[in-house]
Design brief:
This protein has 304 residues and is mostly helical. The protein has 15 helices and 2 strands. α6 runs antiparallel to α7, α6 packs parallel to α8 and α10 crosses α15. The termini are far apart.
Length: 304
């Protein structure tokens, strides 16, 4: 096959994302870092033996296919949902890492189960790091350069563990989790918590907690239930007062006391909602103390 034809295929595959693709390729293949002022083209050129230019092109074509799937997932599985989530939130920093993981799976250095776990880890980490922790994704750049290159070079269990440990070390402390969760909420009544993006963030955190607790992914739409009426106090808007609940059950809870709601919560398919009904059967519920429980659970389950 002619070089021009291969290059045309690469261009057709990545389209307008060519510049970003080459930069992310140079990161995962040649460890392009922030200090490389000459950029991706020079990095790729300098590390390529002219006699092996064809090998480079074929590898670029292979990785272009991965990149297209990252940017526009075509499957309908959980991994595609996560890739779509990252795209929707304009999260690009993980793309070199994702390409390396995809390649490791294709050459059978990763099993399908290990690959699924790695993609799920990225999702869980991002929610805790960014959505809860408020940390900036660009602070991960050096770590992604190092570990996407290491995974591409030879994806062993040790390499995977080193990557995950490196990311976990960047998570906020448990106390920071708690403080940040105290400011996260959603409300029909209080302007401070009325923005749709806050509702979306709450849903992400509640769904992650459910998935970690139950081991089952949340694939269907759900409503947010305010345990104590949010109209009574602004504090009742924060996430410690929120539960996942099916719409039909949420409708049953309207204007009921907590004592009356607990049997309804016990009917839910969601493990966290049923656990709440059991834990607070005595009615001694404190919104801020539940934030402490959520922070502790997320911190321990994501890291361990």
């Amino acid at each position: 096959m002619k070089i021009n034809q291969v290059w045309s295929e690469i261009e057709a595959t990545v389209g307008s994302n060519m510049k970003a693709f080459l930069r992310h390729y140079a990161i995962q293949k040649y460890r392009l870092g922030q200090g490389d002022k000459d950029g991706a083209y020079k990095k790729i050129r300098d590390f390529t033996d002219p006699k092996k230019a064809a090998d480079l092109l074929y590898d670029l074509r292979l990785k272009a296919g991965y990149y297209a799937e990252i940017v526009e997932p075509t499957s309908d599985d959980r991994n595609a949902e996560i890739l779509s989530f990252l795209r929707t939130h304009n999260v690009r920093v993980f793309r070199p890492l994702l390409m390396s993981l995809m390649h490791a799976r294709e050459i059978e250095q990763l099993t399908s189960e290990q690959y699924d776990d790695a993609i799920g880890f990225i999702y869980r980490f991002y929610i805790c790091y960014k959505i809860i922790g408020g940390m900036e994704s660009n602070h991960l750049s050096d770590s992604i350069v190092k570990h996407s290159y290491a995974i591409e070079l030879n994806c062993t269990q040790q390499v995977l563990d080193e990557w995950k440990n490196s990311f976990n070390e960047k998570l906020p402390s448990e106390e920071t989790f708690r403080i940040n969760l105290l400011s996260l909420g959603w409300s029909h009544s209080w302007p401070l918590y009325s923005e749709t993006k806050l509702k979306d963030r709450c849903k992400l955190v509640l769904a992650l907690l459910e998935e970690l607790k139950s081991g089952v992914r949340v694939s269907e739409a759900f409503t947010i239930e305010h345990i104590l009426p949010d109209s009574q106090a602004q504090e009742n808007s924060i996430i410690g007062n929120l539960l996942m609940l099916e719409e039909r059950l949420n409708a049953k809870c309207k204007d009921k006391s907590l004592k009356e709601k607990l049997p309804i919560y016990a009917e839910s398919r969601y493990a966290t909602t049923r656990a709440f009904a059991k834990r607070y059967a005595n009615g001694c519920f404190d919104v801020k103390k539940r934030v402490d429980f959520i922070a502790k659970d997320l911190f321990e389950m994501v890291i361990h």
